[in-house]
């Protein structure tokens, strides 16, 4: 059974940075793509970023491209989301997810395991 545990969320001022981590267990981490999604109050779940099984391919939502960086350490079974130049509109609960395949996707249905989420709040 896959377990994903996010950490690193918190309260930060606009323009600041946070680094989210997601530790995985229960499946061969290095064989699957990983993704980050977010859910803000009153909004639908939104794709943020994805990374392929070996880190060779990454993809970002237009709203975060150039500010966020997804990476992974397969030796540590961990995926990261470095968030820079944060804006109030980045405020959301951030979820990591493990994909069904080796390549990432912007679609939530391509992921079959989800973490519990970590809150990110950006004040103006």
Average pLDDT metric: 96
Q: Calculate the terminal CA-CA distance, rounded to whole Å.
A: 40 Å
The largest sheet, given as strand count, sense and whether it forms a barrel, is:
7 strands, mixed
Shape: globular
Q: Classify the beta-strand content into a percent band.
A: over 45%
Instruction: State the helicity in percent bands.
Output: under 10%
Radius of gyration: 13 Å
Taking pLDDT < 50 over at least 5 consecutive residues as the criterion, the unreliable ranges are none
SSE pattern:
EEEEEEEEEEE
Query: Structural class, judged by helices and strands?
Result: mainly beta
Count of strand segments: 11
* Tally of helical segments: 0
Distinctive features:
globular; mainly beta; 11 strands; 124 residues
What would your notes on this structure say?
The structure is a single chain. By secondary structure, the protein is mostly beta strands. The protein has no helices and eleven strands. Strands 2, 4, 5, 6, 9, 10 and 11 form a seven-stranded mixed β-sheet that branches. The mean pLDDT is 96.
């Amino acid at each position: 059974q896959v377990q994903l545990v996010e950490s690193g969320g918190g309260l930060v001022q606009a323009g600041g940075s946070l680094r989210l981590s997601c530790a995985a267990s229960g499946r061969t981490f290095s064989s699957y793509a990983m993704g980050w999604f977010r859910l803000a109050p009153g909004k639908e779940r939104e794709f943020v970023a994805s990374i392929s099984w070996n880190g060779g391919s990454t993809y970002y939502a237009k709203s975060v491209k150039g500010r966020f960086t997804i990476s992974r350490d397969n030796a540590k079974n961990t995926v990261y989301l470095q968030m820079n130049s944060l804006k109030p509109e980045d405020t959301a609960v951030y979820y990591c997810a493990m994909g069904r395949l080796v390549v990432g996707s912007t679609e939530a249905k391509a992921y079959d395991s989800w973490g519990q989420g970590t809150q990110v709040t950006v004040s103006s």
